Amino acid sequence: MPKEFGRSARVSSQMQKELALILQRDIDDSRLGFITINEVVLSKDLASAKIYFTVLNSDDLNKKNHIKWLNELAPMIRHLLAKKMQLRHISELKFLYDDSFDTGMRVAELLSEVNKTVPIKRDESENP
């Protein structure tokens, strides 16, 4: 029976923390804004990692540019990550934009619009 928190989950959690610190402190690239690492998904053999991130206040073009820039910087980021993590092999890094926050905000907007247009029925037994 597999462990609830297996090695892959532990490595992914540690990798997420280290990547956040590397992007915050070690990467000096003015093109990159405030990046948040939301999730790291590792393959079963830990050979590849998909890193989901978000960027504060960015439009669609800026998001695509961030994906391109981070994937260009991936070898250097991987090298810095290898120095910080005690692993024999470091995963190949692939950066992907996490649009779940944007989707959630859009759903919230749609729901608030629906709430504005649908009249609220009051129970006649209630006092105004």
Q: Layout of helices and strands, plus pairs?
A:
Elements: H1 7-26, E1 35-42, E2 48-55, H2 60-84, E3 92-97, H3 100-117
Parallel strand pairs: 2-3
Antiparallel strand pairs: 1-2
What's a quick, concise take on this entry?
With 128 residues, the protein is an alpha+beta fold. It has helices spanning 7-26, 60-84, 100-117; strands spanning 35-42, 48-55, 92-97.
N-to-C CA distance: 59 Å
Query: Helix/strand-derived class?
Result: alpha+beta
User: What is the count of helical runs?
Assistant: 3
- What does the radius of gyration come to? 21 Å
- Average pLDDT across residues? 85
Unreliable stretches covering 5 or more consecutive residues = none
Shape: elongated
Number of DSSP strands? 3
Helix % is 40-55%
Q: Spatial order of the strands in the main sheet? A: 1-2-3
Multimeric state:
single chain
State the order of secondary-structure elements, H for helix, E for strand. HEEHEH
Strand content: 15-25%
Question: What can be said about the biggest beta sheet?
Answer: 3 strands, mixed
Please describe what this structure looks like.
This protein has 128 residues and is an alpha+beta fold. Helices cover 49% and strands 17% of the residues. The chain has a three-stranded mixed β-sheet with strand order 1-2-3. Strand 1 (35-42) and strand 2 form a beta hairpin. Helix 1 crosses helix 2. The protein is elongated. The termini are far apart. 14% of the residues are buried.
